[in-house]
Design a protein that fits this description.
Oligomer: single chain
Shape: globular
Distance between the termini: 77 Å
Helix content: 40-55%
Number of domains: 2
CATH class of the largest domain: Alpha Beta
Radius of gyration: 23 Å
CATH superfamily of the largest domain: Bordetella uptake gene, domain 1
Structural class: alpha/beta
CATH architecture of the largest domain: 3-Layer(aba) Sandwich
Length: 319
């Protein structure tokens, strides 16, 4: 009897051990990117993912969910289970401008998300197709003013839309917005000459500026970008009080456990601290972030309020 009892116990342990081992394996983290592959958010997330995964001991899988102004991807993240296994890349459009640009969103930026950390910031290059006769911003203004409503502008997201609409309003230019589901298709359309102009990050425009397939007129940031030091800021070119920075970072669904948020932030800092990530971000024209959740949360709230005031004051039509 005793021998049989020992045998049964041994069998139970043998059966239980694999199940226990399986339960201790960490599941992959899904990172939702609300734009197509190749855009700034996608490139940065894929750059950080291996090092973040190393810190977390988990694989990070990038899930691209492109849509107009990133609404679909942000909504998926907002409504995902807050278990630490879903994060998303939010930016100045999806997680600040959209709050006021849209009359009604399927998510609440301040209620439905927990900011984790900034990834990077950069300015937007006003780029035009070289078929246009304009060589300077002043010449482009004159060109567009002679063709009210006929000069086309590619819209890659809410940041570009608002930054562009505010710029054209100040410069008294009637432009025709053409919406795309992210930076990459906007870039392709400008290269083909399908559209006349776009506001793109240095990442999306740099190689084409060097090859002459795009022409840069100015950059929206407060300071000149180190990658394009000869390109003046739009403020330098006479746009009074005009400055827009594109930023993006990591968000998790509201209610995600504090320990998971802390681990994710630690992973972002680890990734940004590695030479391959830090140097590559610099090469792409971005200033690295890494702010802790409390600081990033305060920043996002400030951006929501800042853009609310600017959108109302500018008279940009709401969607």
């Amino acid at each position: 009897m005793h021998t049989r009892t020992i045998a049964i116990a041994a069998l139970a342990c043998a059966i239980a051990s694999p199940a226990h081992a399986q339960n201790t394996v960490k599941r992959p983290i899904r990172s939702i990117v609300a734009s197509p592959p190749g855009g700034p958010s996608d490139v940065q997330m894929r750059l950080l993912a291996p090092q973040m995964g190393e810190s977390l001991g988990q694989t990070i899988v990038v899930d691209n969910r492109p849509s107009s102004n990133g609404v679909v991807g942000a909504e998926l993240c907002a409504h995902a289970p807050p278990d630490g296994l879903t994060i998303c890349v939010g930016n100045s459009g999806t997680h600040a401008i959209n709050a006021t640009l849209y009359r009604k969103l399927p998510y609440d930026i301040l209620r439905d998300f927990q900011p984790v950390s900034m990834m990077g910031t950069t300015g937007l290059v006003v780029a035009i197709h070289p078929k246009l006769p304009a060589k300077t911003l002043k010449e482009f203004i004159a060109y567009a003013q002679k063709r009210p409503g006929k000069t086309t502008v590619g819209i890659a997201g809410a940041t570009g839309q608002f930054a562009g609409d505010a710029l054209w309003k100040q410069l008294d230019m009637q432009m025709n917005n053409v919406n795309f589901k992210g930076s990459a298709p906007t870039e392709i359309s400008l290269l083909s000459g399908e559209i006349d102009c776009a506001l793109l990050t240095p990442l999306a425009s740099m190689q084409h500026l060097k090859s002459g397939r795009m022409r840069a007129l100015g950059i929206s940031s407060v300071k000149r970008n180190a990658l394009i030091p000869d390109l003046p800021t739009l403020a330098e070119l006479g746009t009074t009080g005009y400055a827009f920075e594109y930023w993006n970072g990591i968000f998790a669904p509201a209610g995600t456990p504090p320990a998971a948020i802390a681990a994710l932030h630690k992973a972002v800092v680890h990734a940004l601290g590695t030479p391959q990530v830090r140097d590559r971000l610099t090469q792409l024209g971005f200033t690295a972030g890494g702010e802790p959740p409390a600081v990033y949360s305060k920043f996002v709230r400030g951006e929501v309020e800042k853009f609310r005031r600017q959108i109302i004051a500018s008279g940009v039509p709401r969607l």
